[in-house]
């Protein structure tokens, strides 16, 4: 699935050292995932829409990663990854060349330490504990907007000790005279115990006014033969307005986010069933009970989402898939859909990995 370009970098040495560089390797990899999607109630007039769009579950991307053996079990590592829209060729992440990942670091027996643009701890955590591994349409990934996704200017530690997985990240605010404004910190921990895995996460993100968006949660999964069951919880409080602005489908005049912090209680469950070696079927259900939506005291709302996904492998590198999702909102959450309080999406696509 990945094409490895390896080269041994031999040198004549510098000065009297007579040394040579250690062996290095660079891997070029990527996913091109394109789908055709039909959506009901796609605008304020409740028109249907048919569109060519990015993948349902995996956003298209390409990247390079590499490592150099430094000896003694220590390696230098790097990763550069770019997201793009295959239907237009334009870059994602506001046009950043390597908007998904861009980091360098060291990896050894005690874990991995990296610096650069990376995923938040909660985003990384739910990538392991969501049945869809965090979807790619807003319709199937909206619960995870609370995790922020990826941030720049971070220092991250990740380690594995037997069945224990841990991670910690600090994001530099980069503001003169303040260590806290614009900063981030987060942690995660999980444990593998036979067919079961479980864990939790917590993080905080500050805006340039030092207001805080917090989220926390737990998740678990359990493998039973060809099936894996998932369940989890996410909670959040947001005094920055970030979650509302990310989920609203049109411009909404907000209230006072500091005095009326948005609060979310999200529950989810699902299962992945490997029906046969080439066919996997996934079902997922998400529910959010939210308070103080858009910065208004007492403005409560609810959102429900169900997703079905079938993926069939034509080869080790190529899959075709079909998916159906249904969203229902009420109360203050109606600003998260453009027209009626419900929306249905149906899509089919093809994914190639290299």
UniProtKB/TrEMBL annotation:
Gene3D superfamilies: Porin
Domain Porin: from-to ranges: 10-331
GO biological process: monoatomic ion transport
Segment forming the signal sequence: 1-22
GO molecular function: porin activity
This protein's UniProt keywords: Cell outer membrane, Ion transport, Membrane, Porin, Signal, Transmembrane, Transmembrane beta strand, Transport
Compartment(s) where it occurs, according to its Swiss-Prot or TrEMBL record: Cell outer membrane
InterPro entries cross-referenced by the UniProt entry: Gram-neg_bact_OMP, Gram_neg_porin_domain, Porin_dom_sf
Domain of life: Bacteria
UniProt xrefs under SUPFAM superfamilies: Porins (SSF56935)
Membrane topology note: Multi-pass membrane protein
A Gene Ontology cellular-component term: cell outer membrane
Subunit description: Homotrimer.
Name of this protein: Porin domain-containing protein
């Amino acid at each position: 699935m990945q094409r490895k370009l390896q080269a041994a970098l031999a040198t004549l040495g510098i000065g009297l050292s007579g040394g040579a560089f250690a062996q290095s390797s660079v891997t070029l990899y990527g996913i091109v995932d394109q789908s055709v999607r039909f959506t009901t109630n796609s605008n304020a007039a409740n028109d249907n829409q048919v569109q060519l769009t990015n993948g349902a579950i995996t956003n298209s991307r390409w990247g390079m990663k590499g490592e150099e053996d430094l000896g003694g079990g220590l390696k230098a590592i790097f990763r550069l990854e770019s997201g793009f829209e295959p239907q237009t060729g334009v870059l994602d992440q506001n046009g950043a060349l390597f908007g998904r990942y861009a980091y360098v670091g060291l990896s050894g027996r005690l874990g991995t330490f990296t610096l650069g643009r990376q995923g938040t701890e909660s985003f990384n955590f739910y990538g392991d504990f969501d049945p869809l591994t965090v979807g790619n349409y807003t319709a199937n990934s909206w619960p995870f907007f609370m995790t922020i996704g990826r941030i720049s200017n971070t220092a991250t530690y990740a380690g594995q000790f037997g069945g224990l997985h841990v991670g910690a990240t600090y994001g530099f605010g980069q503001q003169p005279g303040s260590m806290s404004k614009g900063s981030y910190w987060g942690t995660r921990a999980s444990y593998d115990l036979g067919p079961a895995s479980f864990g939790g996460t917590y993080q905080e993100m500050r805006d340039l006014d030092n207001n805080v968006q917090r989220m926390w949660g737990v998740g678990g999964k359990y493998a039973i033969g060809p099936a894996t069951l998932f369940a989890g919880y996410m909670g959040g409080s947001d005094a920055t307005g970030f979650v509302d602005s990310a989920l609203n489908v049109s411009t909404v005049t907000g209230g006072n986010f500091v005095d009326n912090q948005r609060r979310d209680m999200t529950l989810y469950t699902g299962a992945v069933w490997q029906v046969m070696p080439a066919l996997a079927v996934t079902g997922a259900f998400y529910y959010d009970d939210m308070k103080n939506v858009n910065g208004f005291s007492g403005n409560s709302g609810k959102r429900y989402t169900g997703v079905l996904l079938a993926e069939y492998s034509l080869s080790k590198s190529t899959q075709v898939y079909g998916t159906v999702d249904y969203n229902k909102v009420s109360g203050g959450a109606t600003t998260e859909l453009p027209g009626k309080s419900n929306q249905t999406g149906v899509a089919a696509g093809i994914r190639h990995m290299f």
